Amino acid sequence: MVILLNCAHHVTQRLQKTFVNYGEAMMYSLESCPSPWLRTHSMWGRYTVSFMLIVTQLGFCSVYFMFMADNLQQIVEEARTTSNTCQPRQILVLGPILDIRFYMLSILPFLVLMVLIQNLRVLSIFSTLASVTTLGSMALIFEYIIQGIPHPGNLPLVANWKTFLLFFGAAIFAFEGVGMVLPLKNQMKNPQKFSFVLYLGMSLVISLYICLGTLGYMKFGSDTRASITLNLPNCWLYQSVKLMYSVGIFFTYVLQFHVPAEIIIPFALSHVSESWALFVDLTVRTALVCLTCVLAVLIPRLDLVISLVGSVSSSALALIIPPLLEITTFYSEDISFVTIAKDVLISILGLLGCIFGTYQALYELTQHNFYSRVNFTGGIHV
To answer: How many CA atoms lie within 13 A of 361 on its CB side?
Structure first.
């Protein structure tokens, strides 16, 4: 994210533009690189980044569908047995009353209404609500998992290499905000302060990920489920935690949806007359939300879809493209050999992780029944 931010800032200064998005930064950087072939095909750099952003953000939205449906299903179907006493959750659970896809479809109309909001400043209000509900629920999750943590001596020190490949995708999935970095900066009243906001935000997020992942695994061990909220006790307090977290994800969905909408909708509107603009706008937004729902319905496996989305597209946007973007942006300005070597190494590692992580996630998906309700462990979830 920092590399992307620096490159975009450099491009805007060089071209004397107010702002550029991710795709434009890639295109303008290729236009100034020494290779004639890359300069000629610079537009394809923009197309590639735009395509990867669409795939990534819609993949995130599909994962959010699964997350909300998983938690909503557990809340609704355990309501009759929910008590005021918070005891550790039993591993054996009765079969679902309603299929998980029913809960996905029940969420769909509300998300369709939410994505009709187009102003990012208005969406920032929902972002604040999402942050408040998420932090509140995380505080209660921490309060529970730090109690009575078993001795970690029985936990394996290292997982097998197949699990590591899935972990790579899940970890890179954490870079889900990479597509929102430049749009948020461009909408800020004081964009020059964005670097401080980014560093502070990333520091807090990294700390929370490390603490929650470590403590959660120490608490639940191999029984850790695809979302740690599904490990919480069946009592009203922690059922409310799942509800708050789901509300936070609901509002976050709208923010993540903003990126592909801003890429696809202007393209669609350019092919219709002004009288059809509103109809096409609403239709495209509705169709994209329905697409994310369909993807979630077809593959209702939260853990593996997280790994797959992370490996396929997040690795490209977070690890492969930014280092290459830095080389093309600063190559004509005497970029150091150490920086070039660092960028090439990061891109190669990202490419290898993309290839092997994608293969392992697809292999795991083929080994299970897509139409069964599964929330199993993997040791990679936080």
So the answer is: 26
